[in-house]
UniProtKB/TrEMBL annotation, chains A, B, C:
Record's keyword annotation contains Membrane: yes
Family of the protein in this entry: Belongs to the UPF0126 family.
Subcellular location per the Swiss-Prot or TrEMBL entry: Cell membrane
Membrane-spanning parts: 6-22, 29-49, 61-77, 84-102, 108-133, 145-163, 169-186
Organism: Algibacter aquimarinus
All copies of domain Glycine transporter, residue ranges: 4-76, 93-161
Keywords: Cell membrane, Membrane, Transmembrane, Transmembrane helix
Name of the protein: Trimeric intracellular cation channel family protein
Protein's membrane topology: Multi-pass membrane protein
Length: 203, 203, 203
């Protein structure tokens, strides 16, 4: 199950990397690298922080093939994907990455709060590094509820773990929480307040 | 003693992260993340480079609480802090981080020069990554004497270690050197020359 | 032989870092740090990803001396170097870094494709992090054939390894491939297509 989520998230992240890189007029190599970094960035930072080296994608060549395949697909059908983007459920699976990160943190015997941080890093750092490489202030710091959804999903996971519920259900419920918060936030344009919300948006 | 410095430095760095993030109009999550990254960034890079994983802040939840507490405090009292900023001695303790890094380098049997580099990384990388995430050229590369103070403190540490002086004194003197150089530099606006000092400042 | 390449590449990268940092009006410390990071960045990321810690430059002080020496040299003779830049063969040796990275990947028992990725990271990440620290979109993502040369050199290496050719020859031929592709690309201004090549260049 974790593996399926990993693959789905990898596809979604790779495609999102391609779309941002193309909008920055990068060359073919740049587009592929941004796709790759966006897809593996979160998991790589997580692995480095807990000392799980060589990092995951280096030990399983499948991820490389999946990323290259997704990137080529996204380059060929870029206009269609941009159009479908808001309706593609695929992009909402990436929040589930959080749970993969939490699992690794638990296996490394870390504090629940640290596990949630690891989960959020796994799910969001790929996008952060994508934006840094593209010379943007990471979008996640400015207007997305995405990371908050990851954190709340993680909290749900640990709260439910205390109850006498089967592990699989805990996992599924936490995953559903992540996805629902994300979808609600997108639908109703909910965002965290900026600290100075009365000033105009910087570019 | 190292632990006290670590906690004080963590508070100072977290607050500085909050102030920069607010000036960039980030949302609440962005502000907290920048606070966190600024506070743990230097120590994390140091731990990764020497292979001390899971990295320090993951093994001691105290740092997470200290950072969140400092960040909330800074958000609530941001205008007062900005006003007090230049007179707060707290901010000058962060140079002492250098000594924490040097200690770790010595424990890992590294060359003194590498230890000083590690110390400087510990004390300055948090600010560097804060500026990168905020899409700025790191301020430390442009007009601060801060890193130079760290390096000179480190050199002092190793020179005094050769003399028959008790370890604790060596440590205290090196720490005082870091702080005094920093204070003098701020007071007299001393800065390293830019290579082309006759051209106008870029923004 | 790997060691000689490492030293030559370190010199070339350090000098390139100095030139970019000066053009950004950094102070002396900033220039030295950018030189250092550009020179060791690729190898450091490679070492972190495969778990080879403390990272290479920390275990061999020679690199630090070489970088500081090269940086001071570049600062003193910056105008001459800028003039000679296009004709300096030295800068073309850095593609050979790829082979150093591939070797490390093979020693860590990784898949050939991952080894090529490691090689390309070794050869190109220093430049990427230099550009990020200088607040630029990495030049490698926009108009250089450099990384492609590294990848093709890596592919050559693995293809020839299958044939009954002595290891040394395989190495030399792959290295020549990297250098020739790079030189041809520079001479004939070959670049990978951007995905939207009909739009005007962004700054």
């Amino acid at each position: 199950m974790f593996y399926t989520i990993d693959i789905l998230g990898t596809i979604a992240f790779a495609i999102s990397g391609v779309l941002v890189a193309i909008s920055k007029k990068m060359d073919l190599f740049g587009v592929l690298i941004i796709a790759f970094v966006t897809a593996v960035g979160g998991g790589t930072l997580r692995d480095l922080l807990i000392g799980n080296t060589p990092v995951s994608w280096m030990k399983d060549i499948t991820f490389t093939y999946v990323i290259l395949g997704s990137a080529v697909f996204a380059i060929l059908f870029k206009s269609k994907i941009n159009y479908l983007r808001t309706s593609l459920f695929l992009f909402d699976t990436i929040g589930l990455y959080t749970l993969v990160g939490i699992e690794k943190g638990i296996n490394a015997d870390l504090h629940p709060i640290i596990c949630i941080a690891l989960g959020t890093i796994t799910a969001s750092f790929g996008g952060v590094i994508r934006d840094i490489l593209c010379n943007e202030i990471p979008v996640i710091f400015r207007k997305e509820i995405y990371a908050t959804a990851c954190i709340l999903g993680g909290v749900t996971y640990f709260l439910l773990s205390e109850l006498p519920i089967k592990d699989d259900f805990v996992f599924i419920i936490a995953g559903v929480v992540v996805i629902i918060i994300r979808l609600l936030a997108v639908k109703f344009k909910i965002a965290l307040p900026t600290i100075y919300s009365n000033t105009k948006e910087v570019n």
